[in-house]
Design goal:
By secondary structure, the protein is an all-alpha fold. Helix content is about 70%, strand content about 0%. The radius of gyration is 22 Å and the shape is flat.
Length: about 90
């Protein structure tokens, strides 16, 4: 295995690990929000429920934004620039 192949393999593993970490954070935030919003009886007496919903929503947004940034910058296939369309005078 060449050094370049090894480097590419390691980079791929690191990227997958980072995406998995952010997906776990996303799923945790979604589960928390689901409990707060759809099963409030399960949380009992909670003095700052709105604050906890805001916190979980911010965690969800941060995880999704991080995943999108990694996907956009490291997984997206670059698209060639569009060529100008010439109009025919007919």
């Amino acid at each position: 295995m060449t050094d370049e192949t090894t480097t590419t393999r390691i980079a791929s593993q690191l990227l997958r690990a980072a995406l998995a970490e952010f997906e776990a954070r996303r799923q945790t935030a979604l589960a928390t929000l689901d409990i707060y919003l759809h099963k409030p009886i399960a949380i009992g007496d909670h003095p700052n429920l709105v604050g906890e919903i805001v916190k979980a929503t911010e965690q969800l947004a941060a995880a999704e934004e991080a995943m999108e940034a990694l996907e956009r910058n490291f997984l997206a296939t670059p698209t060639p620039p569009e060529l100008p369309v010439e109009e025919n005078d007919a």
